[in-house]
Amino acid sequence: MLRLCNDYLPQIKFKKPSYNRDTLKPGIVHLGIGAFHRAHQAFYTDAVMNLTGGDWGIIGCSLRSDSVKHQLEPQNGLYTVLERGAENTPCIIGSVLQVLVGPENPAAIIAAIANPCVKLISLTITEKGYCHLPSSGTLNSAHPDIQHDINNIHAPISAPGFLVAGLLQRFLNKLEPISILSCDNLPHNGAVTRSVVIELAQHINPELAIWIGANISFPGTMVDRIVPATAEADSQWLADNLHFTDAGLVVAEPFTQWVIEDNFCNQRPAWEKVGALLVKDVAAYETMKLRLLNGSHSLLAYAGFMAGYTTIYQVMQDSTFVALARNFMAQAAGTLVAPQNFDLTEYQQQLIERFSNPGLQHRTGQIAMDGSQKIPQRWLNSVRDLIKQQGDIQLFAFALAAWIRYLDGSDEHQNPISISDPLSQPLMQITQKHKNNAQALVAEFFAFEPVFGADLRNNTALLNATAEWLERMHRSGMKAAVGALA
Ligand code: CS2
User: Fold this and answer.
1) Is the CB of 354 inside a 6 Å radius of any atom of ligand 1?
2) How many CA atoms does the CB half-sphere of 367 hold within 13 Å?
């Protein structure tokens, strides 16, 4: 069977690039070219060029592994986005020009950022890629990657390191400033990126830090599209139905949303022509999405995993879990001010439908990863607001108990769980230390400042409720605990 590449393109009968890919120039450097970027920002950039033409080529960078390079290089950067819902809709994306791999050739990424043609850098490096303290949003200077980059800025390994190294070249070469666009699920993602970049730059060259502060813009964004890891069944579908292979295939839900703060210091693709919303302030969109979508996603992931469900779709076949998600969202919605012209009730209903998409095999274990980096913005800020409002914190205590239960490291059949989280070591030390004392366990957990800050440990109502749910989860199992909430 033939593999997708330039030569194969003429045979494609469904949606494919209508623009001339030979004239693309490197206009965007993207750090973190995983599935999400390919189904979201690269998808929008491709759509803009299909509509209006243009030469916005993307230089995609992998900061860890070389797998995406091996997927896309033999395919001339081409890949398929397969939208799975009631129907399966494929389209070929052509906006990626090249893939660079940090550990192989850090100098190539620095040179790409310092290329005078480049107008903007975008990022999907996941929460932990910012090397910040999740509770405060400031740079974690003690982070081993940051320590490495402070001493080796010409061969960095972290995303802030690559940004600073590339900006240093632009500064020294007196090039025009570029915009840096964070597309990760962090609150104030633009401001967090700005703060980690400037803090790191101060260690390298104080004048550079001043130049960045005065010239570089860091627009905030809210990005949304469910993009599970591609499964064997997806590649099989492509082979069976479209009769070609694509090592770079990504699968996504039909829904997609992008809200961008209109604050660019250089040119950008006209993403607003293909559905992106350019606004003055993204905060209301971002908070709504993080607390409702991502908040309930994490809850369903921890509770669902422990109840034996492998995917979110399976979880959504259990009506008590659907009720749990609805109630959780309703509680979280009470802490929000809806963005203009937005109906929060309708948004919640839409989320239930999106989570119930049978075409998506979104693994609970995938969403459960990196909880220490996700929980502060997904749950804890809602909890803080509810405490201020004297609202009901039960469902958040339940969610926290489900996370702690997961970090116990074994499931309900005593099978070990492979926990992937940069802070798994200190957190699992706490769960192991107090195995038989839920109250002491939760107290020490809440005192863990990188995640909980300094305020929540004093809230005895939250602490007691979390400890009670945790005991119940151990005593009667997760399904029974969820049932007790209904
Ligand atoms: C998910 C997100 O993996 C996760 O933590 O909650 O990736 C989620 O699918 C996206 O944010 C949806 O836009």
Assistant:
1) no
2) 29
